[in-house]
Amino acid sequence: MGSSEELVRATACDIVERLRKNNITPHDLLDALESRIRKVDGQVNALPTLCFDRARAHADKLMKKPASERGLLAGMPVPIKDLTDVAGVLTTQGSPIFKDSIATKSNIVVENLETNGAVIYAKSNTPEFGAGAQTFNEVFGATLNPWNLSRSASGSSGGAAAALATGTAWLAHGTDVGGSLRNPASFCGVVGMRPSIGRVAHSQAAKIDRTLSADGPMARNVEDLALMLDAMSGEHPGDPLSLPVLPTSFLAAARSGKKPKRIAYSANLGISPVDPEVAEITRKAAQRFAEAGVIVEEAHPDFSEAVACAHVLRAYDYVLTKGKLLKQHREQLKPEVIWNIEEGLKLTLADIERAEAQRVTLTNRALAFFETYDLLLCPTTIVAPFPVEQRYLAECNGTKFDNYVGWLAIVSAITVACCPAMSIPCGFTREGLPVGLQIVAAPRGEARVLAGGKLLETILGLGALTPIDPRPGT
Questions:
Q1: In the annotation, is 256 catalytic?
Q2: EC number(s) per UniProt (predicted)?
């Protein structure tokens, strides 16, 4: 079956193939994970809540089925972000308000994963309510970057990214509003995708058509991520916006070898400062597409209203989902969450109407842009991983931000334009810190993102960066 160390370093696709052939069992994988967690997780704090008893009980039930009936993941262990309910497991949302909260029912996304053969063994760390793209909270503390333990793992799926990077997960679940899948993937040298609206069904809360937030996959390479997206996708009556499974799997799309004809690169999407070194690394990576005969040009859609649009719609969403908490538990909320709710309470109907109209305009511009270009490439994060003591990035390349989410414009613009996007590793800074490249396509264009991402991953030779042992800070 292979040693525990060998299993930890295997790809998810390889692991699932072995599970299907009964060469290994889910219990072998859970044993390997327990060993690896004991070795490394105390250094990074990626998986603060473990539920191995639940995992083993689920694995026992799964193993009673024929291999052909164990789902796409066939018994693959998967951690779930601590914003998302798993029945019988602690779900704190990174908040002291919910530090003792045990979920009674699983979120639809968890139910679908388990139906597709996932075995849930842990909850991954997140900032309070997923806010801020820096994974720290008063319940479990901060998640550290495995490439340099003095740096941030970003967020809000920081625990998931750090687990993947350190070998305590092969695949992971995350969520994304303003880059929460993409940012930590960039900082930790792994892969993360925000899918299209409705691609991954999830339980509804506060508003049926909340579309800023999306559940999505994280992995160590593009093919593994595609496998995870296949396991997460599909319609569900509990999510009226959810989409049916496509005829062609996302893993097949990633492996298709289809090349884009023309791609665009932008260092800043016209709306954000960017660290010069990050711009240089991402631009050089994008230009490598030319080696495959792809036309590479510098261009981007007009995103001029994106920052204002995202600010209003995010604040509105905070009022819908967290307004009651401000009234009842203000003293237990972190300042950034309070600010975001209060920004929402200031909104008028005219503000909301304007932002919704801007979103329509931005999406239409993106659709028009992708009539010319197959993909849009840009930095995922505008800086390399910053010191973990910083609550958020306050300035970049001489520009100071007005608020704690100002540094996320380059990812939140893609969110409000309704486009799927994936971050893949594309190089390292002079300090040896990973840099991510964001690959974007038109709405419902995940297959195109995955095929292009796999092509560039192969050209760059960066598909096997992780897992690594945590590296001391400098």
A1: no
A2: 3.5.1.4
From 95, 152, 156, 266, active-site residue: 156
Helix (H) or strand (E) holding 296: strand 295-298
Interval 69-124: pLDDT, tens: 999 999 999 999 999 999 999 999 999 999 999 999 999 999 999 999 999 999 99
Compute the distance between CA of residue 186 and CA of residue 179 in angstroms, rounded to an integer. Answer: 10
The closest of 414, 314, 266, 190 to 174, measured between CA atoms, is: 190
- β partners of residue 193: 422
Look at residue 179 and tell me whether its pLDDT is greater than 70: yes
Given a cut of 90, whether residue 474 has pLDDT beyond it is no
SS3 361: helix
| Average of per-residue pLDDT across 350-362 | 98
The token pair that represents 309 in the structure block: 């649009």
Question: 242 preceded by cis ω (within 30°)?
Answer: no
Question: Which CATH number is 4-460 given?
Answer: 3.90.1300.10
Confidence (pTM): 0.98
Classify strands 395-396 and 399-400 as parallel, antiparallel or unpaired: antiparallel
What confidence tens digit (pLDDT) does each residue in 270-288 have? 999 999 999 999 999 999 9
- Residue 164, classified by CB atoms within 10 Å of its CB into exposed (0-12), middle (13-18) or buried (19+), is buried
pLDDT tens digits for range 145-177: 999 999 999 999 999 999 999 999 999 999 999
The rounded distance, in Å, linking the Cα atoms of 382 and 292 is 27
Q: Residue 320 and residue 299: Cα distance in Å, rounded?
A: 36
> Above 70 in pLDDT, residue 1?
no
Query: What is the per-residue DSSP string for 94-144?
Result: T-GGGTTPBPSS--HHHHHHHHTT-EEEEEE--SGGG-SSS---TTT-PPB
pLDDT tens digits, one per residue of 274-327: 999 999 999 999 999 999 999 999 999 999 999 999 999 999 999 999 999 999
Residue 2 has pLDDT above 80, yes or no: no
Quote the pLDDT of residue 3: 86
Contact between 416 and 316 under an 8 Å Cβ cutoff? The reply is: no
Q: Is 324 a catalytic residue?
A: no
Compute φ and ψ for 362, nearest 5 degrees.
-60, -40
The pLDDT of residue 54 is: 98
Distance of alpha carbon 421 from alpha carbon 266, whole angstroms: 14
Where exactly are the structural domains of the chain? 4-460
Catalytic: which of 106, 152, 157, 180?
Answer: 180
> Residues near 417 by Cβ (< 8 Å), separated by ≥ 6?
301, 303, 306, 359, 362, 363, 365, 366
